Automatic annotation (TrEMBL), chains A, B:
Sequence ranges assigned to domain Transketolase-like pyrimidine-binding in this UniProt record: 351-521
Top-tier EC class: transferase
Family: Belongs to the transketolase family.
UniProt catalytic activity: D-sedoheptulose 7-phosphate + D-glyceraldehyde 3-phosphate = aldehydo-D-ribose 5-phosphate + D-xylulose 5-phosphate
Xref: PANTHER family: TRANSKETOLASE (PTHR43522), TRANSKETOLASE 1-RELATED (PTHR43522:SF2)
Classification via InterPro entries: THDP-binding, Transketo_C/PFOR_II, Transketolase-like_C_2, Transketolase-like_Pyr-bd, Transketolase_bac-like, Transketolase_fam, Transketolase_N
Record key words, sorted: Magnesium, Metal-binding, Thiamine pyrophosphate, Transferase
Gene Ontology molecular-function annotations: transketolase activity
UniProt keyword annotation of Phosphoprotein present: no
E.C. numbers: 2.2.1.1
NCBIfam families: tktlase_bact
Required cofactor(s): thiamine diphosphate; Mg(2+)
Name recorded for this polypeptide: Transketolase
Amino acid sequence: MHAVEPRQLANAIRFLSLDTIVHAAEGHQGVPLGMAEIATALFTRHLKFNPADPTWPDRDRFVLSNGHGSMLLYSLLHLTGYDKISLEQVKSFRELGSHCAGHPEFEPACGIEVTTGPLGQGIANAFGMAVAEAYLNARFGAGLVDHCTWAFVGDGCLQEGLGQEMISLAGHLKLGKLILFWDDNKITDDGSTDLSISEDVAARFRVADWHVVEVDGHDIDAVSAAITLARQDPRPSLIACRTVIGRGIPRVQGQRAGHSARLYPEDAQATRELLGWPHAPFEIPADILGAWRAAGRRSAADYSAWQTRLAALPAAERAEFERVQAGELPTGWREVLTDYRRKAAADTEPKPGIFASAEINDLLVGVLPERIVGCADLEAPTSHKRGLAAFTAEDRGGAYVHCGVREHLMGAMANGIAAHGGAIPLAVTYLAFSDYERPAMRMAALMGLPVKFVFSHDSIGVGKNGPTHQPVEILASLRAMPNMLVMRPADAVEAAECWEVALELRRTPASLIFARQALPTLRTTHSADNRSRRGAYVLAEAEGGARAVTLLATGSEVQLAVEARRLLQAEGIPTAVVSMPCWELFEAQDAGYRSAVLGEGCVRVGVEAAMRFGWDAWLGPRGGFVGMAGFGASGPYEQLYAHFGITPANIVAEAKRYL
Amino acid sequence: MHAVEPRQLANAIRFLSLDTIVHAAEGHQGVPLGMAEIATALFTRHLKFNPADPTWPDRDRFVLSNGHGSMLLYSLLHLTGYDKISLEQVKSFRELGSHCAGHPEFEPACGIEVTTGPLGQGIANAFGMAVAEAYLNARFGAGLVDHCTWAFVGDGCLQEGLGQEMISLAGHLKLGKLILFWDDNKITDDGSTDLSISEDVAARFRVADWHVVEVDGHDIDAVSAAITLARQDPRPSLIACRTVIGRGIPRVQGQRAGHSARLYPEDAQATRELLGWPHAPFEIPADILGAWRAAGRRSAADYSAWQTRLAALPAAERAEFERVQAGELPTGWREVLTDYRRKAAADTEPKPGIFASAEINDLLVGVLPERIVGCADLEAPTSHKRGLAAFTAEDRGGAYVHCGVREHLMGAMANGIAAHGGAIPLAVTYLAFSDYERPAMRMAALMGLPVKFVFSHDSIGVGKNGPTHQPVEILASLRAMPNMLVMRPADAVEAAECWEVALELRRTPASLIFARQALPTLRTTHSADNRSRRGAYVLAEAEGGARAVTLLATGSEVQLAVEARRLLQAEGIPTAVVSMPCWELFEAQDAGYRSAVLGEGCVRVGVEAAMRFGWDAWLGPRGGFVGMAGFGASGPYEQLYAHFGITPANIVAEAKRYL
């Protein structure tokens, strides 16, 4: 086969993308046509990958952070030979059920490393992948883990605060194998970038100690040379590529319409004429396709050498590597939690809710070395650092990432770590600031990444710091999110049970939510089974007759329900207390169990220091609620509970209202 | 009275703050003791303010963005003579009901310009205040509006993405009257800033075209000279102040514990000895207090000159200024909306939901010149720019702020504009990205700022862009938030009704949520009264007998309920359709109205292309739901509705299930 001109390789991306977008009558041509040469340089000369084994652990990771340019990715996957991205699949772009969705949807088996679209998320995920790589490289050695993380990024991702947080921390941590390609096309969906930005983006990266190379993004050799420089530099690199948006389409290139304006067959034809591409729509000449397929085999030697190294490892070492890659838990972890539960049941000393989580995680340090803990400005009050060294520019073996006051980056980093594989990410901060992290939490839920989002300071129990720091609506807002387990344990025993369930999750993130204030032990008898696993259970059954009242509570309010039950029983009213650490798990139980726990025909009262929103699903026709009706206030927390009427006496009164 | 040494003025702040924090046994000493000299320079030599008239429209705005240092603000307010911040109030710091809450809570009458605490919000609010000032300055002239906006800021605010978004856009817009004081103390709550940042913060500001002055933050004269330079420079200014956290407390100054570690009377005593302050706790010598009170009168001449200028204005001009300052609406605005409603009812052409909002806002351009519209990367698809010029560095008369892809900043800017007064802010973006803006939305709700948050692309109706862009949980998450009206109109008539209600709000923000896809007109008969005002109403009553079924729907799904009703009625099942554009308004109606609308004893079916979460409050014991059970998918939207079973046929089936 004669040598194919590199520009024809780029044009293959260009026309496959263009034909598909015209066919779909919708799409974003700006990126695939503007970054075709950049992608050609990366995928044909540098990327370490194997389309025949898309999830090869030591592959380079490629993230299309400007996810609206999804056709660029699908073109590359098809051209380089990913089985699942056949030409038929490409043609089904944006149709229901296609692998080629409007935005890339996480599907590693297809070569889609992460879901992108919401701007800023992709580069922050890439940052997390680079953290995971560095950690695993330190843990298992460069023979098993030694790869780059590449991301394509547009202006939008860099305007987002999330992107800015990433720039700052990646430079600080000197993540030298993280390399971004900036599609500097001077255009956003809103028009010229001049409308909203005038800073020198490259200089901004340099301030954060990034290595920056500026190149013509349509010069394949120049981009390739820049990549070589970037790989050599110990700092993370920005390859700033000057590009023309939608390059090649005469009517829209370099203009706002180049982003995503509707294209027609005439546009495709005009582009063919301009670029000298005489082939029919969707026709890729055999020599060009062959060259692309050869690029897809470019890492064959690396791949087999890696397999050889893996096979040569001592059995235990290999098994450990394969275990963490598979996301499997080691032996012994469950016993650690069971043992903790047993001791916690016997411990009568109240302790801050979050400290139980800290203690549990401290016990896991030796058992689960694949845990990576990110924390946003909160080491002291939550203590999830115990027993861990910091992950720094100098020490990649540390498993604790000081994220600074950057909650959003922390969440997206955790997603990137989870998507990378080989590590279990935790992200720890105050519940009130989960809103800062929420867009990343949504992505975790959407992708089904088993990130553990850990929160402290979960209610008015925060006290004097006041309403800004007191969640009242946040439990509901998280419960509303699909595929997110929201867990709010009542004591240290439930904390261990919830951690046990959370660690077992493979395709679902969990929010583990703890009180700042001290909580008494309510589960004072050790039970062999994990009672939180069913989401809700009868903590104390009604006595002296058929159940008249069920008090349903979570977290720090379960103790109030227990006290209210005592008062009601003393008046001869048979009352049960149901602890509900996780609504989603309870909802998944069979109707019989749910009905038995909730109690039929009785009064039900929900008790939670939060808004009622969502509770009615559990309360039935004679349902009351004791909780918050608005934001909190600044004051000693015991006074706040009284002030807002979240007391045993009011629970009793609410129950009687419906009796 | 002999001259008081400036350092004694600073020490008055220091000891009043310290004594209070020791008294409260909790607080954050780092900021008040570390920024005492900076505050002294600003408040005694530069700030334009009048404690006797705290809400003087042309006062300088002062924002304590590092809100945990609240005692600094309370000390300043007390010392300069704000009536409501008496010594008794100061002593009640962090007690329930005090003006001196754990974090500053919005109360302009006390001199508290904005609620701060969640990091990054304060400086972004300050940015919004500076935008409002520039706009009002252009509109009313420098004789009425010509003031600075000052903000104190710590490392946390600058690490937050929100802070970074602010730096970028403030530099771009050349907001020269925005001046920040950075408390560069090298310490966060987590320890040294070196743990999480190594970039040159001053250089990062310079890249964004800020003017930067670096000074010793404990040298009052140097800070004052820097302020003079900052005021002269046409760019926004950062005064980078090198400080010692908790300065003066021997045990903790300059250390992590300087941030907020518990202090004891011995600490206060040791500080007295170190700094030579022989006075008893809470005792401020008369000469020092006198000098502070004199500082509180420093703008007396400016104040009276301003009043004179206001009084000298032509009556109409003065009335207009006073109207917008009071937040009152002009005559004629309601008629514009009523007229739109009348025409919309007669318009049978379906139109994209968001276009109705765009048309309404276009009509308001001439009527409500106090509207300032911020938009994040979305001008084209929502068209809320129509009729407006851009607010730029060169043209302050434009009322449309191109926010770039910075949703969070947009929301916080809107809060700052609302807190400033004299303008009505709108913030427009996609509903899927409201999560990025959510922390600012929470602050609007908490402060009771009447911001209009406008969202498009509200459901799976977004279609092929896929699940990242399709809200399913976001309606619920916003409805869970206290003091936020969530409005989802079903057609252009309801859109105008909801806008009418939203514009009337004085102490409540609203989220106005619109579909991207075309919606038919359902309210084809003009009604004199605004039916959306009650939150929900019977759009079509059951016929042919007592109501057997109530279909409850919002937004784009009301049309499906109407069609389902037709099918049910055709089978002889008397069925009503209730449109529920705003749950919060409906909840505020009397029980009789609610009961009549919902229907008692009948089957109720909720219909919304979103999660069921929250709906059970309306559905009663025989309640069904047709909507989403998880995230969306990429595909043509009509197919998605069928795929997820949100169809008239399924609504009929769901109703029959409970009949």
